Amino acid sequence: HEDSGMSAVRSSECGVRSVALHSAFRIPHSAFSLIEVIISLAILSVGVFGAMRVFPVGLRASQRSELISRASLAAARTMESLKLQALQPDAWETLGETPWPPEGPFEIRAIVDLPSVEGLADPARLKRIVVAVSWTQEGRPRLLELVSYVRRPSS
User: What's the whole-model pTM score?
Assistant: First the structure.
């Protein structure tokens, strides 16, 4: 008898022979084939590789955000300090660039001048304060600038 992919099965109950089709290599249905495992691992590795590429981008964005937040805080502290100084009676006439010590990786420039806005009712009672915070991140210069106005109270 040649093996043509068909085999005879004898039923023990009736004694009748029936012919059933079976493949030459029978694969059990309760297990995974090697090809299924390889395909699953390939899909999983593509997903893991894609996720790993996202982490450095997120980390750089987080570091950039942290530096911007720290620069904003340094600028706000400087601005509030300059506002208090500008309101002092003996300092109201002081204009120009105010020297400011660096704060960590940040260089701080502070400028107090008169605003260049036309049509103000009393421009002598108004000052403009500009605080510029600069730093280098990833080899590129960064700049954050805050502008505020201070009005001298009437005497």
Answer: 0.61
